[in-house]
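sorry for the late reply, my laptop died twice this morning and i had to redo everyting from scratch. anyway the thing you sent over, i finally got around to it. pasting the sequence first so we're on the same page, its 392 residues, then the predicted structure underneath. double check i copied it right bc i was rushing
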Amino acid sequence: MSRIVVGLSGGVDSSVAAYLLKEQGHDVVALFMVNWHERVGNITSACTWEEDALIARMVAKKLDIPFHIVDLSVDYKKRVVDYMFAEYQAGRTPNPDVLCNREIKFDTFLNEAMKFDADFVATGHYCRKTEFVKNGKLIHQLLAGKDPNKDQSYFLCQLNQQQLSKAIFPIGNLLKPKVREIAREQNLPTAERKDSQGICFVGKVDLPTFLQQQLQPKPGNIIEIPASFMAKKKQIEIIEENYNKLCFPFPYKPWNGKIIGEHQGAHYYTIGQRKGLNIGGHKEPLFVIATDVKRNIIYVGEGRNHPGLHRKGLFVKAEEMHWIRPDLKMETGEKREFDIRIRYRQPLEKGTIHLKDEGAYFLFDNEQRGITPGQFAAWYSDDELIGSGVIQ
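ok and here's the structure:
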């Protein structure tokens, strides 16, 4: 049997993961991560890391496994939070959960786990891992979790083969109700605990308040773009077959619409956002269709079906293309069909990746709503996650 360090978070998923490994006869060690200390002005939930740690310790005691705490807050701030602020400042919308997994859980935390002579690191993610040998080399596959409502493979889309070689996902074959059932049967302290929400290890936050810690308010104009304007532009692009244009955000100009209000900073908003605009007088809700942080302008459109919310494609720079399966890496000039996801819990969408020298152009069979620069596009073959990249 193996020595396995479990990232015990104080939630039900990691608790059941630890229980299952113990039942299988492994030498299990619980390690709790402290990644965030600050509270003033950002945390809106009552839960703190001290409370999580206390409950995690209770779980470890119940399972009769060693419990340790490691403080990773310095690395977390530098590699996740500072990155977040920089991306919002640049007008992009980052995914801190993807970064947390790549930079913290399966890097800094994994290194800490190795100090306990661990063979593997286990987490409570709803995903699966399999292995096979190809040309004499062991290949690790990252697969979607069996629970379609909880599949978290997307959050691990930036992992590499070395990280996967040390990873174990004990609950990946289970449905969430079954995980709860196991926790209740074993009287685990986390059995009825609600799932965590918000930014990875920071908690449930009011995002504008959180961002205002480093990004100062800066009043600017909200400009509404008529649906008729975008519909006409799209017809021209389709006639010209200019698919390069279809893969990038439309370059709105202030004269394309009319000023209808004021915001407190373009860097606080993201594509598809509805809340926080505080503008009335419209039959349908307004949605953010673009942000311009240089001019400090937010462009909005009326209704969920506004043409500005939908795009045929996206672009990922060559240096941002990450292959979980390097053996399946595409060659320049090649095109290949995949199932593609542009955000967590979004249904997989059919599309084709066209790889060029400068990067990859993703063209979808159907237009996609709310493609957002800074988020990750992940591509799958059946239920296997093949690679991912940052949307431009």
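The CA atoms of residues 249 and 290 lie 8 Å apart.
thats about all i looked at so far, will dig more tmrw
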